[in-house]
Amino acid sequence: MVNYRRPVLRRVLTSAAIGLVLAVTGPAGLAQASGGAASASTGTAASKARAVCPPTTLWANTGGTARNLIQYDTTGSTLSTAPLVRDYGDIAFSPNGSTLYGVDFPGAAGSTTLYTINPVTGAETASTPITGPLAAVTPTPAVNGLTARADGTLIAGSFSTSQIFLIDPATGGSTLFPVSFPAGIVSAGDFITLDDGDILAFGTPDTTSPSPVFRIRPDNTIIQIGTVPQTFGAAKSAGQVYAFTSNGDINQLNSLPTTASTAALPVTTVEATGLGFYGATSTQDAGTCVTPAYTIAKTATPARKANEGDTITYRVTVRNTGATAATGNFTDDLSDVLDDATLVPGSVTSTTGTASVTGDTLTWTGTLAPGATATVTYQVTVNTPDTGDRTLTNTAVPTAPGGTCTTSRACTVTIRVEKTKDCDKPGHGKPGHHPGDKPGHGHDHDHGDADYNHDSEEGVGK
């Protein structure tokens, strides 16, 4: 598959970029900039080790002729896909996970723009022109690295210079970060705040070589710790870093040394997508422990008992209870329902997302904004006669990170099919007045009905 990522443009920019790198960085390979208050606070922003977070999902953007925002779990399975309106050099969630940013690539001479993106739909919701030294980078800003820091500012890199920048997302103003990549190296595509407080940075010497990986210390020193296959974006989940490569692989970095090295870092390819990645992010890249959270709850009408021929309506409600966009996927095993009933054709509906039944399993996939809900509805008709076990039990199970049931019983519904009693058959009178009954024995028959109903109710919820 053709990679529509930045390499085509990078072939044009490389000579100018490397020339600018040598001019800006100098032989020491470490520029100390006087970029104002934002630069001065860099050391404190990464001075404390972070606790390892629970797992979260990974987001990536592709570009060229197939611009999409794609959400993955850490095994590489696709959780959601939304179309994008333009190429973004990189994307980044705010530290609390509530805002997704993107920066246009490559921008124009003297101009580049920071956008906010709806992670559910991919639509742009706001735009802010970037000003200051980043916008002035020549020949174009070519921003291809973007990540939030814990203080809310964005750290950004460019393919046209070895300098690193800070962006105030509220104003678009940029300042110089007090650290640069070494001479001959420009940004490859991302920065990650590690759990030990260092910033992991991916560079590149050209359009084809492996990416050197650096640690930026809180004291504003930088060391290379190894190389990885050419990487255009990275994201962190539960302390693990995942690199999104130029050939479409998603690689988990198995080791992040703390000492200087140029050796290849061991990686595990969790998925070979073949896609043209432009960037990647997660809600934990800033060193914060933001995780997706959603709940599911299930009801049925009638709720506990049904008769042969009755139609039962099931409803599963999915609610995003977290602060960031979440995929609320779930499955519902219908095997213990369909031995007693038949799915009503065309009855499977969803207020948003996609619901479908394959074999005996209903599946729903969809991404919800914080506080949003989705309702999935389907119906079955109890068979006449019911030759199954006369008990319909099924459980909805969340299948994406952060999913839970609202209570321990909220995801399971059990419905019992009433037995046809002899007294309801033709030729039978009222209870207690059957032919041959002795006087005073009607009470025994009524007591039997009471026992039956008690057992039926008692079985519910087991």
Automatic annotation (TrEMBL):
Pfam families: DUF7927. Residues 1-33 form the signal peptide. Gene3D superfamilies: Immunoglobulins. The keyword Signal applies. It comes from the Bacteria. Keywords: Signal. Residues 421-462 are annotated as: Disordered. Residues 294-414 form the DUF7927 domain. InterPro entries: DUF11_rpt, DUF7927, Fim_isopep_form_D2_dom, Ig-like_fold. Residues 434-462 have a biased composition (Basic and acidic residues). This is DUF11 domain-containing protein. It comes from Streptomyces goshikiensis.
